[in-house]
Amino acid sequence: DAAAAWDAQLDAWTAWRTISPAMRDKYTAFVDLSNKGAESFGYADLGEAWRGGYDMDPAAFDTEVERLWQQVAPLYEELHCHVRATLSERYGEDKVPADGPIPAHVLGNMWAQSWDNLFPLVAPFPEATPVDLTQALVDKGYEPVPMIEASEGFFTGLGLKELPDSFWTNSMLVKPEDRDVVCHASAWDLNLEGDVRIKMCTRVNAEDFITIHHELGHVYYYLYYNDLPAVFQTGAHDGFHEGIGDTLTLSITPKYLADLGLDVDPTMDDKALLNRQMQDALSKIAFLPFGRMIDLWRWGVFSGEIAAEDYNAGWWDLRTKYQGIAAPVERSEANFDPGAKYHIPGNTPYMRYFLAHVLQFQFHEALCAEAGHEGPLHTCSIAGSEAAGEKLAAMLSLGASKPWPDALEAIAGTREMDAGALKRYFAPLETWLKEQNVDRTCGW
């Protein structure tokens, strides 16, 4: 029942944001103290200090990020237009206007940062049989550790080194029975000398199979820059580390899965392809404007452009401008909605995730070319290509010892970040979305 679903989601959305107003005064004091710290290092404010970590003038970096966003904005607008029309049909045009922002609570995610849960509503071809990776893993008799060994095989198949024995003895690979743990998957380099581990409550399902490949991407980055002085043992910039893990998951194609011996059709017809691309877009394309605006808000807060008395208004101005969403109920400065997103009170910079969502496709395209791939980018898996592995290792080995354009050049042959590969990857979906939207008013 659409009305009940609307109300239930609204209750959850508003309840989640009842805890954050109490943070507001403390956050204001925190901003002041953070800026004083940044000033002691010669920066105008903390936002400038963060933007100063990219081997370029902070103002130039801001321009660069906006350039990347403008490359992908048309694709996001097409996705937004189609999703809005579907939601308007479900809930009624009085609740989801056909030409305005989408109410933030009906996008299947507490922050509207990922729209994966909307896939059953917006699948291009609901009748098409999807690849059931979870069932294929179960049917093959996989357990958690063999799943991780299979992921290691992806990396060794590229010619990269095996994981050290300590990885297998020191990592938390399954949920312990004798204590409570944080199960959120993460990768660790404990001593900067090769004591690499992952912490994960691995389950036999598709999500964890993909996550393992992502986390081992971090682990292999650690291993390949471990010979450098400690100060250089990090990504070329913070988007590189996240981007590498996601790059490698793009190679988990049906053919790659079939080559592992899983009962998966190695080919995809047009319907299956568009469904797969829609699933990916609801995660990766829907995220882009959110990834863009989080730090844009903070940079404005740190600089004073967004005053303490306008925190919430500034937040929703940016969410509407970039994401095309709006608060589903009236908000005021009695609220502190930014505080309901962990990375704000946790003070974790967010630009890395936006950059990673662009770089992963740029890395993937370059490695696919090195592997000799022919055909559309979305069909490529670099699995088994030692040539691609050599190119990847050359970049990983640099860590942060060179400015990031040098690292980018080592893997992609260019010194400029570019979202063109992302557009090429999603070309089939973009064409389909434009066809669906031909008689609609897009934008907001």
Pick out its properties.
444 residues; mainly alpha; two-stranded parallel sheet; two-stranded antiparallel sheet; 18 helices; 4 strands; 55% helix; globular
Question: What would you note in describing this structure?
Answer:
The chain is an all-alpha fold. The protein is built from 18 helices and four strands. α4 (58-91) packs across α18 and α12 (270-303) crosses α14. The two termini are 27 Å apart. The mean pLDDT is 96.
Query: How many angstroms does the end-to-end distance come to?
Result: 27 Å
Helices and strands: which structural class? mainly alpha
- How is the main sheet built? 2 strands, parallel
Q: Identify low-pLDDT runs.
A: none
Order of helices and strands: HHHHEHHHHEEHHHHHEHHHHH
> Overall 3D geometry?
globular
Major β-sheet strand ordering: 1-4
Q: How many separate helices? A: 18
Radius of gyration from the alpha-carbon trace, in angstroms: 22 Å
Query: Number of DSSP strands?
Result: 4
Helix coverage percent of residues? 40-55%
How is this structure best summarized?
The chain contains 18 helices and four strands.
Question: Topology, please?
Answer:
Blueprint: H1 2-16, H2 24-40, H3 46-51, H4 58-91, E1 102-103, H5 119-122, H6 133-139, H7 144-156, H8 165-170, E2 186-189, E3 196-199, H9 206-225, H10 238-249, H11 254-259, H12 270-303, H13 311-323, E4 325-326, H14 351-370, H15 386-396, H16 404-412, H17 420-425, H18 427-436
Parallel strand pairs: 1-4
Antiparallel strand pairs: 2-3
Helix pairs in contact: 4-12, 4-18, 7-9, 9-10, 10-14, 12-13, 12-14, 14-15, 15-16
